[in-house]
Amino acid sequence: MRQLPPDPGAAEDTGRDPDLASLLARVACGDHQAFEQVYSELAGPVYGVVRQVLRDPAQSEEIAQEVLLEIWRTASRFDPGRGSAAAWSLTIAHRRAVDRVRSENAGSRRELKAAPDLSGVDEDVVEVVAARLDQQRVRRCLGSLTDLQRESIKLAYYGGYSYPEVAQLLGVALGTVKTRIRDGMIRMRDCLGVDW
Amino acid sequence: MKTPHRSAGPDDLHVLTGSYALDALAGPEREAFERHLQHCASCDAEVRGLREAAARLAMARAVEPPDRMRQRVLAATYRTRQLPPALDERLSRRASIVRLVHPAGRRTAPARHPHLPRAIAAAVGAAAAAAIAFGVVSQVTAPLRPPAAISSVLGARDAQTETMRTAGGGTVTVTVSWDQREAVVTTAGLSSLPSARVYQLWVMSPAGISPVQARSAGLLRSGPVLASAIRPGDRIGITVEPAGGTAQPTTKPVVTMTLPV
Prior knowledge:
Order of helices and strands of chain B: HHHHHHHHEEEEEEEE
Number of helices of chain B: 8
Radius of gyration of chain A: 17 Å
Shape of chain A: globular
Order of helices and strands of chain A: HHHHHHHH
Shape of chain B: elongated
Distance between the termini of chain B: 62 Å
Oligomer: heterodimer
Helix content of chain A: 55-70%
Mean pLDDT of chain B: 74
Distance between the termini of chain A: 22 Å
């Protein structure tokens, strides 16, 4: 299987994150100023991913606030030996958004007839300028996947669907979706040059 | 989908690393996989790598949140207690000494985690050593907490917040509680001053009343400053003054703002 070389620009990111990790260590000591900097770094990605999944602006704002406060509250639990500060924070954000979707759908099963539009959030939002570089890399790496890998990943992550829901949306077997998501994410990891 | 309820063996579970990293496992399956993760080091390592990749998917969709969110979250931190570090059983005896001295007491030893900021590790270590040497057991460096009055304003039911840019860059944010007749002022990104100068906060009489009366509400350093006994129509102003502050403003304010009513 052909693999793309790691993105040459990816190395810059590792310079950005240790900073966030040391800020989180200060936040764990109750440093409000450090938290303001953490907020500046993370509010955009946190709000962006929550809104991507939930769509509703008011609900997204509420969840994003909860997530950022959770980062303040649990900063002492961040372990820099187990991953980047950004991944730690965005894992909290994405999971919180997905849990909200699932709890709302618990009563009424979500309509799974047509795949939703995952092209991006509505026109009225202002993208974070610093995200453009990430966008280019992610787009390039997503482009290197098979169609099924790419669609499965986008539905699962941006759409907040469980893999059985993804299987139903795409009309493929459960086992197929599981393996395509994993294979696709491994290729994304290698293409993006993340190192953990 | 022929046998969806077939009991899953370890190999089947390993395939779930991708779905787990994307939060695409629902309820029971997520819990089962998390139990599996505790005993499967290779799954755990793979999940961590895939989560880093998933984080990039999130960062690529970053959008500007509404401005009001910032102040709400920052205000909420002043009334939200933080979790203590999770202590490793093996390290807990040593760590508890550190924790008494410095709430930073992190459970991880620097050697195990090269990413742990060295300065903090060193500070904690030094503080622990000093505490042991001098028999100090109280908190030497407690986290900076605002006086109760500040958190009371930030948490007030009638709290109103307004943010304004200053002439020289940066912003000033004011949260007012008219029930308490107090305001909390914070600044961010003000241009830095030579060491002989400080920013001083004033409560000023309403615009249009001359001569302007101003009383000092204190020097603006890093933390929030409380302005008391405010009256509707009052303005706040920030001036650059000689170190130590002055009794009356001696320069033109870099910003003035009428308190939100």
